[in-house]
Design goal:
The chain is of the alpha+beta class and about 500 residues long. The protein has three domains: about 1-125, Uridine Diphospho-n-acetylenolpyruvylglucosamine Reductase, domain 2, CATH 3.30.43; about 130-245, Uridine Diphospho-n-acetylenolpyruvylglucosamine Reductase, domain 3 (2-Layer Sandwich), CATH 3.30.465; about 245-470, Vanillyl-alcohol Oxidase, Chain A, domain 3. The protein contains 16 helices and 18 strands. The strands form three sheets. Strands 11, 12, 13, 14, 15, 16, 17 and 18 form an eight-stranded antiparallel sheet that branches. Helix 12 (about 360-375) runs antiparallel to helix 14 (about 430-450). The longest helix has 21 residues, at about 430-450. The site of one 2-acetamido-2-deoxy-beta-D-glucopyranose has 4 residues, from loops. InterPro entries: FAD-bd_PCMH, FAD-bd_PCMH-like_sf, FAD-bd_PCMH_sub2, FAD-linked_Oxidoreductase, Oxid_FAD_bind_N.
């Protein structure tokens, strides 16, 4: 056993050898190289291990991903039924030096971030679907196989919600490990600011629980936005909030309203803090092939009693709408009805940018985005591009600070902000390189222009980022140093950095 560990360590290019608890390691005797990681899985857990061409394998590798860019072929898929299976899997992968991926909701479209090719192994969270409410209903325990639509639907009969994603098919673990923007963020901060406990599998194979006050409080802090370098989370305990019904829906506008719409975006950015129950997602979608651009805004108000004031500039008579579905309904109803708006299995890419709240910034970003998309992507089959301005208030940032702080350490003194996400979807794999190069180029161009005018902001939201964007480099240097220290403490062999290959890694920043 000791030999296996040393071999694993050498293959990983590290010299420190951590103590792997005997209980975790005993099981994997005989697994000597990555070729037989899958046969070890299959032997020990035949019902939960799927080899290529089996129906389970096909279901796990094709049925779960939002973006077609994630189509990959792992050597096998392991579907743990509980945290002990995850622990066993991590030890087996470690001792066989097998690279692996972990899939939560499968929404992040970067190839390799939640799937992997052979000889890598995919750990699927499909069956880690715990959903339970504490007796006093103040905490909901959520397994990482859930998506936000599952969480909201589960809580709805109790008149409760959790601080989670705004798109139902987004998975719970990815959103939370990157911080997580929520409709409720102006009231409660990042989604991760509302986690009360993480149950995790450490790289050693130990299953532990981390809270703000126990002996894993450093790990608890790191998990609120430090990504996947620290542990595999097998249960999130989230505080619940009372939110039986909300006012929510999508307003749409045509191109003739563009300037008024951009005014409204700017004004919401500036005055959004006045009522922190209000949230908005303004999205501009363009179809260059058809020469059509549409403007939309998802409006959200966390109360059964409407307050039209925060949205006055997104509604008549200040702007003309083409349609508006804003209505009182349970959040879970809205989430279920909007999920189909994100069609599955197109090719997807997104990139993140951030600015201070400025009318000039809004115009510059809008104009540059549309003109470059039209000039350079019109011939891409099935191309759709969208640009979303996410207003981030001082209240949003303050909630995180009041709640013990998080690794993101967003500078409250320069808030409010816009955190923008650019999205592209297309249909033909042959166009991948063109779209990726374009996405990288336009994002760099826009950020350069913003910087030159003093309008850029520093923080970049991990969950909206594209491959190669620097994330941790924009966290406060002291926080990054602390993240690196915590990572080294809990995973000296770099299992979750070198073997779990996907994702943004603190040690590489
Ligand atoms: C997951 O759990 C369900 C029962 O909830 C079971 O029917 C199914 O076979 C399990 N899937 C795998 C891959 O283990
Ligand atoms: C695209 O639409 C805009 C206005 O909607 C119009 O001014 C422009 O001429 C159109 N371009 C083409 C190539 O049809
Ligand atoms: C709407 O826009 C006007 C400026 O046209 C601004 O004074 C007002 O505060 C805005 N309202 C809100 C709620 O943002
Ligand atoms: C755009 O990208 C963001 C990135 O986080 C994603 O959550 C969102 O679902 C995407 N929107 C669309 C319409 O594809």
């Amino acid at each position: 056993m000791f030999t296996h560990r040393v071999v694993a360590a050498l293959l990983l290019g590290v010299t420190a050898v951590a103590a792997v608890p005997a209980a975790a390691a005993v099981e994997v005797e005989g697994a000597t190289n990555q070729k037989n990681a899958c046969s070890t899985f299959k032997q020990k857990y035949p019902d939960y291990t799927f080899l290529p061409n089996s129906p389970g394998y096909i279901w796990e590798t094709q049925g779960h991903y939002w973006s077609a860019t994630l189509a990959q072929s792992p050597a096998c898929v392991f579907v743990p039924q509980n945290e002990n299976h995850v622990s066993w899997a991590v030890s087996t992968l470690t001792l066989t030096s097998t690279k692996f991926a972990v899939r939560g909701g499968g929404h992040m479209p970067i190839p390799g971030y939640n799937n992997i090719d052979s000889p890598g192994v995919l750990l699927s969270t499909s069956n880690l679907t715990t959903l339970t409410l504490s007796r006093d209903k103040s905490v909901v325990s959520v397994g990482p196989g859930n998506r936000w639509r599952d969480v909201y639907a589960y809580l709805q009969p109790s008149g409760l919600a959790a601080i989670g994603g705004r798109v139902g098919k987004v998975g719970v673990p990815g959103l939370l490990l990157g911080g997580g923007i929520s409709f409720y963020s102006n009231q409660y901060g990042f989604a991760a600011d509302n986690v009360v406990k993480y149950q995790v599998v450490l790289a050693s194979g130990s299953v532990v629980e981390a809270t703000a006050t126990n002996s894993y409080s450093d790990l608890f802090w790191a998990l609120k936005g430090g990504g996947n370098s620290f542990a595999i989370v097998t249960r999130f305990d989230l505080r619940t909030v009372k939110s039986p019904q909300v006012w929510v829906g999508i307003a749409q506008y045509d191109q003739s309203q563009a300037q008024k719409y951009l005014d409204a975006v700017y004004n919401f950015g500036k005055y959004g803090s006045l009522d922190s129950k209000a949230a908005i997602i303004p999205t501009i979608v363009t179809f260059p092939g058809m020469n059509v651009t549409a403007y939309a805004a998802a409006k959200f108000y966390d109360s059964t009693v409407n307050n039209p004031k925060p949205f006055e500039n997104f509604t008549a008579p200040n702007i003309m709408t083409v349609a508006d579905s804003y209505a009182l309904q349970p959040l879970s109803t809205y989430i279920a009805s909007t999920d189909p708006l994100q069609p599955d299995y197109l090719r997807q890419e997104f990139r993140v940018m951030s600015s201070i709240v400025s009318r000039d910034a809004v115009q510059l970003i809008h104009d540059t985005f549309l003109s470059q998309v039209y000039a350079k992507l019109s011939n891409i089959a099935g191309i759709q591009a969208s640009l979303t301005f996410q207003p981030v208030t001082k209240e949003f940032i303050r909630q995180g600070i009041n709640n013990g702080g998080n690794p993101q350490g967003v500078d409250i003194s320069k808030a409010p902000y816009f955190w923008m996400v650019e999205n592209w979807s297309w249909t033909d794999e042959a166009d991948d390189d063109t779209v990726y190069a374009f996405a990288k180029g336009i994002t760099a161009d826009i950020m350069k222009m913003l910087k030159k005018k003093g309008l850029a902001a520093d923080y970049l939201y991990m969950n909206d980022a594209g491959k190669g964007q620097e994330i941790f480099q924009h966290y406060p240097p002291a926080n990054l140093a602390r993240l690196k220290q915590i990572r080294a403490k809990y995973d000296p062999l770099k299992i979750y950095t070198a073997l779990l290959t996907g994702g943004w890694k603190v040690s590489q920043a």
